[in-house]
Every structure is written in structure tokens, then in C-alpha cells.
Amino acid sequence: MNNINRRNFFKISAGTVIGMTLGGVTLRAFAAEQLKLDDPLAAAMRYTHKSEVEGQKCSNCNLIQGEDGQEWRPCAIFPGKLVASEGWCAAWVKKV
User: Fold this and answer.
1) Any idea where the High potential iron-sulfur proteins family profile domain is (predicted)?
2) Checking CA distances to 89, which of 26, 49, 55, 62 falls within 20 to 30 Å?
């Protein structure tokens, strides 16, 4: 009887770990969607994928998150979305 309970415990544990891992990957992929130019907040903030303002781009903005060197990164202004490192919006703040 003890072996059956132990076996079921390991099956459930393994399934839970796999489910949590795959679920986390799916949620991160869903939340990490590239910001579209027709997004209402993007339009309100005059977001563009390619900055036309000298010396200002998302990669040198204080609001950008994530690691340097990535083409698309999270931004505090657009939760759940990724902005282009070469992009720009009206909320740009010089990185300190």
C-alpha cells in the first residue's frame, strides 16, 4: 500500500513540475508581445519602432527593462508588451 501512494505522489509531483514549467513559459510568451503601432496607448504616446529624435531611443531610456543588447525589451510604460530598442515614445527619460 505504501508503494502505491509513493508512486502516485511521484507521478503527481512530476506532472505538477512539468505543468508549472510549461505554463510559465506560455505565460511569459503571451505577455511578451511586441507593441503594435495601432495600440491605443502606443498612439497616445506617439510610439514608433524607429526613433527620429537625435540621441533618444528606447535602449537609452530610463523606463526600459530587461537586458541590454536585445532587439525587443519590456517597458514600464507598456505593461506586458515589448518595445523596439531602436524605438521612441513621448515618455522618454534619459537613463541615469
Assistant:
1) 29-96
2) 26
Mapped onto helix, strand or coil, the DSSP state of residue 79 is coil
> Mind listing the pLDDT tens digit for each residue in 19-59?
555 554 444 444 579 999 999 999 999 999 999 999 999 99
The DSSP result for 1-66, as a single string, is: -HHHHHHHHHHHHHHHHHHHHHHHHHHHHHH-EEPPTTSHHHHHTT-BSS--STT--GGGBTTB-S
Q: What is 33-96's CATH number, 3.40.190.10, 3.30.9.10, 3.90.25.10, 4.10.490.10?
A: 4.10.490.10
Closest CA to 75 of 87, 83, 85, 67: 83
From 39, 68, 55, 62, select the one nearest 47 (Cα to Cα): 39
Hey, CA dihedral for 45, 51, 56, 57, is it positive or negative?
positive
